[in-house]
Fold each of these.
Amino acid sequence: MKRKLGVGIIGAGRIGRVHAETVAFRLPEAELRAIADVNRQAAGDVAERCGIPRVAAHASEIFASPDVEAVLICSSTDTHSELVMQAARAGKHIFCEKPVDHNLARIDLALEAVRQAGVKLQVGFNRRFDANFARVRQAVAGGEIGEPHRIHIISRDPAPPPVSYIKVSGGIFLDMTIHDFDMARFLMGSEVEEVYTAAGVMVDPAIGEAGDLDTAVVVLRFENGAIGTIDNSRRAVYGYDQRVEVFGSAGSIATANNFPNQAVVSTAREVRRDLPLHFFMDRYTESFANELRAFAEAVVEDKPTPVNGADGRAPVVMGLAARKSHDERRPVKLAEIG
Amino acid sequence: MKRKLGVGIIGAGRIGRVHAETVAFRLPEAELRAIADVNRQAAGDVAERCGIPRVAAHASEIFASPDVEAVLICSSTDTHSELVMQAARAGKHIFCEKPVDHNLARIDLALEAVRQAGVKLQVGFNRRFDANFARVRQAVAGGEIGEPHRIHIISRDPAPPPVSYIKVSGGIFLDMTIHDFDMARFLMGSEVEEVYTAAGVMVDPAIGEAGDLDTAVVVLRFENGAIGTIDNSRRAVYGYDQRVEVFGSAGSIATANNFPNQAVVSTAREVRRDLPLHFFMDRYTESFANELRAFAEAVVEDKPTPVNGADGRAPVVMGLAARKSHDERRPVKLAEIG
Amino acid sequence: MKRKLGVGIIGAGRIGRVHAETVAFRLPEAELRAIADVNRQAAGDVAERCGIPRVAAHASEIFASPDVEAVLICSSTDTHSELVMQAARAGKHIFCEKPVDHNLARIDLALEAVRQAGVKLQVGFNRRFDANFARVRQAVAGGEIGEPHRIHIISRDPAPPPVSYIKVSGGIFLDMTIHDFDMARFLMGSEVEEVYTAAGVMVDPAIGEAGDLDTAVVVLRFENGAIGTIDNSRRAVYGYDQRVEVFGSAGSIATANNFPNQAVVSTAREVRRDLPLHFFMDRYTESFANELRAFAEAVVEDKPTPVNGADGRAPVVMGLAARKSHDERRPVKLAEIG
Amino acid sequence: MKRKLGVGIIGAGRIGRVHAETVAFRLPEAELRAIADVNRQAAGDVAERCGIPRVAAHASEIFASPDVEAVLICSSTDTHSELVMQAARAGKHIFCEKPVDHNLARIDLALEAVRQAGVKLQVGFNRRFDANFARVRQAVAGGEIGEPHRIHIISRDPAPPPVSYIKVSGGIFLDMTIHDFDMARFLMGSEVEEVYTAAGVMVDPAIGEAGDLDTAVVVLRFENGAIGTIDNSRRAVYGYDQRVEVFGSAGSIATANNFPNQAVVSTAREVRRDLPLHFFMDRYTESFANELRAFAEAVVEDKPTPVNGADGRAPVVMGLAARKSHDERRPVKLAEIG
């Protein structure tokens, strides 16, 4: 990669700032050219911090910039599909945060726009680029554990988001489990046919009052016959709990959490260590850098992106099915969703 | 406990021999008085090994022996409920291997006989007496992890039994998962209301041809709102995989497997340790001794047994429901079973 | 092994009781015939507990018993060498607790008596029979880690013995480190040529006032060029700390402590587990059974004992050298001791 | 920190490049202004990679640059003390790689120059800024393990450097152990009074022929009475082995190695994980960024540097004493060295 990839960022919220810092300080292969946010102050702060030369008034200004080859769509979820379509029409390569949309029809329109424009699209399922989960994928794909029979994914947040966010989040399955649905497909290398959900409100009644759930088990039946389970909670008091175990005919692979240090203290009371990393940014720092590096590489070297439009769509189908299963208390085939 | 409890054993197969050795060599509080088995040779061998003074021709001979206060029923499952009834009528205290029966009606008859005779009955769910699982129970009961939301039980055998055994085993749910059903109730301190099964034949097609399954996930909904998952396989090539994780509002407790030693070898290829214990007897040695010690104590000190008749019945109901769920591909309420 | 080995025990203190229980309840190959202790009450209690038919007034009575083929010498250290000589002259096979004596000349007399009588002698270095350390030996002997360069032995007691015991203990090197000296020789399969000691009184000044040390590092230079370090403390508040690491040209092997269970609790404060086993009997239960089993087998099958007289002598030489090194603050060659 | 610290780098070898990348991509608080190296090509490559505007012909050019406030001395060890003096006279703040010099007299001259100039000096003992070791320091300083009695430092390289480097390295104690000497002082918060060395050539005879050692144990006696041991090898085939254990009156703290991922694979042969990080840059990436961040902060906020001149001198004294102890086979007091 000789030339630097010109990048524009849309959205200066939490994840937008993360990606801006990654491009600025971790990714010599790319260069930030402009940033846009309805909150001009937020955009300005990120621009100053990361040395971005231009703060745009609207996303459209970025789409119109000739020095921007690729855009990172980091705005709120309800704007994603529309922005993807605009970016595609402007001929920009697109990195879009997950989920592309809560609505399948709009996802399909966006993907169609991308297809017609012939631009690249990568969806922000960063966990594929985490060292632990990449190692699991390597084991499964390389036959290290034989034919996979089972996958168990534990994914628990340290604390629930504010109820105000819960209300616009699309629900636990589209907001949180969606990462795990992606993990399931990615790690097993097989599509899911049917889901069954057992879920409830155990963490905070306000989440239930908002119509959502905070604790869920989703059982997955894969096309290859394997069985998956996803174990979600909106609150693990001990930190960010992110583990996977795949069991197969020749063995198993299981990951542990990441800790801030490897020290163990033994006292007269107990043997203890510090809590696992709490904040998703600390836990997944490297994966964010890795996913953008892979995106930049795909664009510059004209290769397929590692997480494409279909990868963005499938977990949304799974999320809709999971909710339907909960509502109807029965297993639901993905074919029922669309 | 001053006096020694006089014990008779019915059944000199694998588990009968285990219990005989435990009483002979690990349990100073009890004394073996007689053993019976249709296979006289087997009974004789155990008697010689363990210093049992009398080899009885039939179980009835043991029931008629005045120096036998308590019997250990270790014969094949299809004889359990009948022997429990005979023992009860003979006024003997009873330790009966799991399951009491595959048939609920016969279990009920047996439990009624026990009730009428006023003898003590303990069912052989030895895992309650394992140090790991006892510690989990302690954490849950003591509030160490707050209100329990989830339990995940991994229970995988090193290798499947012969297909000839599979055919008379009652199926994976009554033969293998039954232990995990007991663990679920014991560890959570709550009854299960509904189960959902996702299962298949992944280990050996012959098991499927025998009408059974070898890989199963069972989802449990508890009365207290918690959600359980049981993860079974008839073959974990790396050994006997027996783990539990309970997650709650104030934390989690998770157990690891038991290993033959605590040595870790680091070489130019990998960091490795020896496989977990393979054989159930090595893994659960102490629990077998502990359960008989608890039984002897309950008899001698006239206390309730720690695993009673209702504890013997409930997991059978769960097993029948789990199979029904698999057959009908829907969640099944235990109330549907009886 | 068809016949049962007839065993007599001399000494009904802590370790005598341990061995009595092992023979009674764990070792079907042997049978207790008699026990002697100056404290008749103690001997009687053990006899009752373990079903020993005869309580002897003196050790000499045991030596004179034709039904006793082998004796376990478990009395206080100052009586060991004299009892070994008497037992040898009486033609009894001998299991003698460590150390054989604090005095090399008396050890030599005892070993000579054993040699002349042609009886077997095993010295009670039980740790060789522990699963962790046996695994380390296997790795070193089998070349799993290549040529060994370094051994590091951590050996810390949960709490110091009473000062009254310290005063007659022979000092930390002959009382405590002696086990580690044996481990060093056993695990490395090489003799030590020189030691250097850095030690002090850090746990309890009363130990220093009694002329002893409570914290010590002993550096060992082996004949094969390897370097060893022993790390002793009389008090590890978190429990019995017993670990070994051997590092070699092709890798390393390291053991962890043994814990009462494999449960890990994660809370809002920390990730913790229960303390390692505290009591030496809990930690080394199996090794005590294994060493007596090996002794019984050596006698009955007329094989060499796995820990012979020379193995009993060498660690005493090392202990004397370690103290001399401390006193003179210089490395001391074992050849200086004798 | 508002303004950006202007930084010049002297030396574009391995460590120079590391620091350049850190400043360029990880340290928004500082800015690279110039780089110098006798190898112009190397300097040019780093400049291009890291966006350094000026490649200087000599270090003197950097010292003369008004926009350079601080210099990072990353050239070969034999030039360090002279460059420190020149930088000090030029009024530049100084970050100097370890060791400052192999010769104490020259170190003293350099420190005197720094003192007279009133500039800041930080010596490159990066491990103090590693999360594991920082956690150990926190535990010791905070009394979490009580009064420290023992420290054991394991420090093994994955592979020895070329013999050509060994010859100019100053020997294992000044090249490699020097980091561990710093760790010992830093972690224990106490000075060392005496050292004793047991060392040899076990990895490669060529190292011995070059007059150096490749395997060493150094025993440390601290002023506070504690005892330290350092365990060095030039080759650990399984990777970079960097661990510390401190044992005290109220407990212990021990660190494990860092691994590329947290995955464990269980197969029919073993339970294994991937090797620990091999390359020092992977292992200590964060510590390099942290130490420069601390240096920049000390300069900009006019605070003392966290690793000062005395911290640079003391480990050299220890290294000279350790070699003398090896040569004379006796414990050596640091007071003998100077």
Note: The CA atoms of residues 21 and 50 of chain D lie 6 Å apart.
Amino acid sequence: MLVVMEAHADAAKIEAVCAEIRAMGYVPHPMPGPTRTAIGITGNRGPVEQATRLQRMPGVAQLIRVTSPYKLVSREFHEGDTLVQVGPVVFGGPAVTIIAGPCTVETREQTLTIAHAVREAGATMLRGGAFKPRTSPYAFHGLGEEGLRILAEAREATGMPVITEVMDVETLPMVCEYADMLQIGARNMQNYPLLRAVGRSGYPVLLKRGFAATVKDLLLAAEYVLNEGNADVVLCERGIRTFDDTLRFTLDLGAVPMIKQLSHLPVIVDPSHASGRWDQVLPMARAAIAAGADGLIVEVHHNPAFALCDGQQSLVPDRFVAMMEQVARIATAMERPMAS
Amino acid sequence: MLVVMEAHADAAKIEAVCAEIRAMGYVPHPMPGPTRTAIGITGNRGPVEQATRLQRMPGVAQLIRVTSPYKLVSREFHEGDTLVQVGPVVFGGPAVTIIAGPCTVETREQTLTIAHAVREAGATMLRGGAFKPRTSPYAFHGLGEEGLRILAEAREATGMPVITEVMDVETLPMVCEYADMLQIGARNMQNYPLLRAVGRSGYPVLLKRGFAATVKDLLLAAEYVLNEGNADVVLCERGIRTFDDTLRFTLDLGAVPMIKQLSHLPVIVDPSHASGRWDQVLPMARAAIAAGADGLIVEVHHNPAFALCDGQQSLVPDRFVAMMEQVARIATAMERPMAS
Amino acid sequence: MLVVMEAHADAAKIEAVCAEIRAMGYVPHPMPGPTRTAIGITGNRGPVEQATRLQRMPGVAQLIRVTSPYKLVSREFHEGDTLVQVGPVVFGGPAVTIIAGPCTVETREQTLTIAHAVREAGATMLRGGAFKPRTSPYAFHGLGEEGLRILAEAREATGMPVITEVMDVETLPMVCEYADMLQIGARNMQNYPLLRAVGRSGYPVLLKRGFAATVKDLLLAAEYVLNEGNADVVLCERGIRTFDDTLRFTLDLGAVPMIKQLSHLPVIVDPSHASGRWDQVLPMARAAIAAGADGLIVEVHHNPAFALCDGQQSLVPDRFVAMMEQVARIATAMERPMAS
Amino acid sequence: MLVVMEAHADAAKIEAVCAEIRAMGYVPHPMPGPTRTAIGITGNRGPVEQATRLQRMPGVAQLIRVTSPYKLVSREFHEGDTLVQVGPVVFGGPAVTIIAGPCTVETREQTLTIAHAVREAGATMLRGGAFKPRTSPYAFHGLGEEGLRILAEAREATGMPVITEVMDVETLPMVCEYADMLQIGARNMQNYPLLRAVGRSGYPVLLKRGFAATVKDLLLAAEYVLNEGNADVVLCERGIRTFDDTLRFTLDLGAVPMIKQLSHLPVIVDPSHASGRWDQVLPMARAAIAAGADGLIVEVHHNPAFALCDGQQSLVPDRFVAMMEQVARIATAMERPMAS
């Protein structure tokens, strides 16, 4: 940690801060500069505790932390890439993995139809919501356990493992009965009791970035899960809120190589929710793989005009086939195989 | 709802959209413009359902919704100001109400000391966290039930009702045993199971705006609570995330008169979390009241340098006294009394 | 400056960086920490030059600057408040100064009517645009020199000094012939040739914050003007772009006390452009003064429904009178007189 | 245009608005809805003028514009792709075009060295700044005309056309003497006198998106140039400002397909300025081409540690060669040739 003093701080104030640092059990290193003095701190084994004691002392302008606040998720802690295995599916290895399916499980027939279609086109995991967080209380909120049962049936029928969103600690045991991987949605990225509970569940987790979360916030949220002994976490970039209203969210693909550099966890991208428009899904799916993402999660619906949720961003199966062909070409250019 | 057609959409495409609108049971009103045609829809009793059917038709450029998505919270539904009563304290009436207390309950002595200090300075409700959502899993997360007991004791000692944050459905019954008002924190503003549960609890709720939530999102979150039959909701502006890194968040005081115009619910402001700096609390507290806020929620600590949480934004009691004097002067200028 | 090394950087890499710092003529101070080493630099008289030499060395994670990049505008350089005088009007002293007038000079009659109205209500400076930057090339762009002449006539008629926007170096001499104070608009805040030219002109300058500018960016833009020997600069907060689309911009009132702390220059607020709605002007005008602003710049139009520009945010004279009364009450609460 | 009435607006208010619309020479179409009435307007040949007359009438809640504010740049006005030719280089055709060179022209030797290196690696146009807009007045601002002369010499030596930034109307004639294409920087995207002047110059223009500009703002800025009779405009996405401080800017690749859909103009991407880090340039260059960009503009320096400007984001020639190889593989996957 570095304590930056104000320009007008005199020797007495500087010495008082040094004395306080010593009283905290650390070693101060005053460094006079052209306009102000900075004081380095050494001797700490982790983040400097009670730093507020320093922040509020006379003459102190700013504290600058050097130690990053997360640990288990960082590449400094664990240098190699972590592989997350979900049945036969692997995230974080050489292969590009595609998760696809409807936004919401609406009916048995709808889900099976879409599951077969995406399986045939090359997806290796099925997505589908049984519990849906919706901005409006009057929107459709999912079929609940009935939806989970349909997903399990689709798994039997297609052999694909199933991922679905879990919204609270109360329904977590029920979701675990049916799902192979648990999704934490963007609105719950900082729901800490839920993060802890999915950590303890031992199930693989897909953690979506909150739409106002920095990359650091996302890594700290993942740290909650790893801190419970569960390292099977896949991160997901899905768009952030910005001033630009052209699209629903701004897909932050620069986060993909940054996360790869800061962390050992796999990263995938959700091009459907980022834009909210089906015609943006293909270019953004290609760009995500070119940026280095380990996979995609994509919404598909055979009759999107009648979808109960997010129909405007769902691909019809034919477009999904086209997307898979284009993504495969980009994966080849990246010297990565498609998972199969 | 208005369907905007593309500039090149021909008569056949326009007629097809009109036919679909009729098939949905509504009435289309085509309006040719200089570059494109727009089609108005009437005959709907609520938001147009299955609008995606229209959005994906050939030649359709955009759908524009006219009906606002919230209802119970809107001033159109309920014209007069709602008063929220918590014991002797009223939000939304002429008086300006100040909630104050420590960020976190640390010890019995700390909480009682601060409670007496803020009471004496004119606060009428006590705040204090027993369960703390923290960005890092390694930070202090609160005393839990022990903290709630201390808050209850502080209520006995000072006569002030107590507000504290509830973080999940599981601990809600325990929090309700001790608290007079429930706080939903910014990170949980879109935790819908929790919103529903506090709605059903019947307790008064302080709903803090998420730091990436629009005013509309905040009103929709409140709609979840009101939809459970609980209209005792106070809204709280506490800063949003923007590109500017000068302060921790950007306090959006323009939201205060906007919410007052759109909704009948009381609005207060949290100047402590918005900036993360104690020296910003006084000017922003004054500005909030001048903008029309019904009150404030402020962090106070008698020894902030040693606070376990957010010490850098806590006022010492003397500064809080100064704040109360300044706020009282602004309230007088607004022709509002201070609650007592 | 502080050089933060990567966690895995070994002694050889650390020594190489220290050697490079010595070769640059500075003194390195290595400080080993729990996870990584940081190296402080002293001996520099200004910002460390060629810091990129260090940034690209093996094992270097990050450079952290301690010295702030602006100088002449900083309170550390000049502790007392700067007073900016424009004829009889003073910015930055105890009095609250109100600039008012039409968005655009449309006709002689319109400008004189509004000038007399705002003068009578207590404004002490007249605003009005003769050259208007407009997002669309098809919008009205102002009367040019004819507009300047009308402004000068309004000055004669009312005794108020006149402020108007200057858009480029080419028209600066013409604007200087008529105006008493030059306005740099938000879109030109980083138009450096223009900043330099108004600096050299010696005229007092009102510098509006760009809607994507941080407080630091604004201070650096002002530094361009001061660096030409012109310290008569008034800063103006007018709203920034954020994800929230409730209003046109988000007024960042927290910037007011921050600027007062970092700089000696006066600060005023533009509540008209921030929101784009006349019904937001009153509450935001009050809040700005309560936050500590030295004044306001407000748009007034006697017939806003027919205004050629920004009619939706202009106050009618009666509302402006009401605003002045309310602002005066807040100023009294702040123990500041209104300028007269 | 659609006029949305307030929920409580009665028949008299609705009729008054209809009467006003008729008085303006247009035709009103009232459409009663479940909670409020909306009134469509037809009969206008362009954007409805003096809409403020309606906005300020009693009972009016909101005006919604249907007609897009730009025209010449829109695909509705001109359906086919525009090709912009600069000497032998074409933007907007099948080939992917790479512009490369130093951030700033520092010396003759530096520029020639880099020019030869990027030429050999496959770049077809040379970039280099002679006039540099810098946030700080104390930073290096370029060599001016001497820099332009060096660029012209590099053109002779390599055969590549030259692009350089023009900062103001005053130096435009000098820049035109030496340059083949004019760059408008992000900070000048809304410098309207400059946009008009480069429009009149007849030179091809590279218009960089302002870091707080929406896609619509960018298209309107281009409209200024086209409106002067100059359609040789290439648009450039270079990152926007968001709350995330992980990187300097957030590259908005979703803008690429959106611009392609809304406009006929070519679009390229600047991966160097977006992130401010050289190690982000390769992944973002690949992603940009995969998203459908027509080319890239990239900073290269043979000795970036000693670069006078932006060294931390410049690629060394070897990394640029690697980038070209990777980009070529992505271009192949997109079935596009690299320009040569």
Note: Residues 317-333 of chain A form the longest helix (17 residues).
